[in-house]
Write a structure and sequence with these properties.
mainly alpha, Rhopdopsin 7-helix transmembrane proteins, globular
Length: about 375
């Protein structure tokens, strides 16, 4: 067996030669196979597991990270599930805006459930190993929900634009069929997009060093461990992924530009401040999500180190799903009213049934008093 650094140099020479001499691809592949057989290398794709380094390797920080991420995960999942239940239970919320909110809440809950539980389990049992199949599965669902969130944020921005700038034509523009089509297309397109990235990742070969400097199986850390040329993977990221992200960003910019121009025409100062407060909170979360994700996937490696990339990943994988329920829903009076009704039904089912069944008996207080 030859030393590992000699094997790596030989393989790097093959990769560089293949890039600069594309017409000799078949010859280079045969050369690589012969070199593998000559030196008795094992199949590099036979790696069975990866090792997730996590956010920190300091033992004293593990308990703090566990408590912090566990609390954020529970708050996010509980908040999003309550929003979904409130929208389903209240017929007054069966509108396009809340239909998109329900899908965003579902995407946020699944988004965090893809990465955070594995990290919490790794800290709790002190085992940071993840299987090869588990890593690719996590990559698939992570790519699915991160792109789905981007598409839903763009769709919701368009919904806000129609509601504010064209309120009289809102029902015609945002028909139920169009809403279902937008959401279904987002799910299907992103499922296929994630499948493409997963299959391309599965076609790569990985070296003996299987330590991932991250808390989940993200696409860039995995590409850095590849011993084969990841040119096709990177090309797909910058073309298909970049195009999808650009479409979402353009939709957001155009929608919010028209929204702010319409808000400026409101004669009431109080109305302007309220509208600006709502739109600015939406825009801040959108900027945080897209800004950090673009820093991770589309910035040069020289400007975004592994540590900075991990911090940026935390911002859009953990912080944004935590903020979304509060920004988009829990500040909404209709959602708050529906949640109160939902909790009231669970605590006092009989008075609520009598109240809703026999409103002619008088005021709510009288109805409850008779029970």
């Amino acid at each position: 067996m030859i030393p590992s650094h000699t094997r790596r140099l030989t393989l790097e020479y093959c990769i560089i030669f293949r890039v600069h001499k594309p017409r000799l691809t078949n010859f280079i592949l045969l050369t690589q196979l012969s070199v593998y057989r000559q030196f008795g290398w094992e199949n590099l794709t036979s790696i069975s597991e990866f090792y997730l380094l996590g956010l920190s390797e300091q033992p004293e920080q593990q308990e703090v990270l566990f408590g912090l991420f566990l609390s954020m995960y529970l708050v996010t999942v509980a908040g999003n599930l309550l929003i979904i239940l409130a929208i389903i239970a209240d017929a007054h919320l069966h509108t396009p805006m809340y239909f998109f909110l329900a899908n965003l809440s579902l995407a946020d809950a699944c988004f965090m459930s893809t990465t955070v539980p594995k990290m919490l389990a790794s800290i709790w049992i002190q085992n940071h190993v993840i299987s090869y199949a588990g890593c690719l599965s996590q990559l698939y669902f992570f790519m699915l929900f991160v792109m789905l969130e981007a598409f839903l944020l763009a769709v919701m921005a368009y919904d806000h634009y129609v509601a504010i700038c064209h309120p009289l034509h809102y029902i015609m523009f945002m028909s139920p069929g169009l809403c279902v089509l937008l959401v279904s297309a987002s799910w299907i397109m992103n499922a296929l997009h994630s499948l493409l990235h997963t299959l391309l990742m599965n076609s790569l070969s990985f070296c003996a060093d299987h330590k991932i400097p991250h808390f989940f199986c993200d696409i860039n850390p995995l590409l850095s461990l590849s011993c084969t040329d990841p040119f096709i993977n990177e090309l797909v990221i910058f073309t298909i992924g970049g195009l999808a992200g650009l479409v979402c960003v353009l939709c957001l910019i155009v929608s919010y530009t028209h929204i702010f121009s319409t808000i400026l025409k409101i004669p009431s100062t109080q109305g302007k401040q309220k509208a600006f407060s709502t739109c600015s909170s939406h825009l801040s979360v959108v900027s945080l999500f897209f800004g950090t994700s673009f820093c991770v996937y589309f910035s040069p490696p020289s400007t975004c180190s592994a540590q900075k990339g991990t911090v940026a990943s935390v911002m859009y994988t953990v912080v944004t799903p935590v903020l979304n329920p509060y920004i988009y829903s829990l500040r909404n009076r209709e959602i708050e009213s529906s949640l109160r009704k939902l909790i009231w039904v669970k605590k006092n089912p009989l008075p609520f049934v009598i109240l809703t069944s026999y409103p002619i008996w008088g005021s709510p207080l009288n109805c409850i008093h008779h029970n």
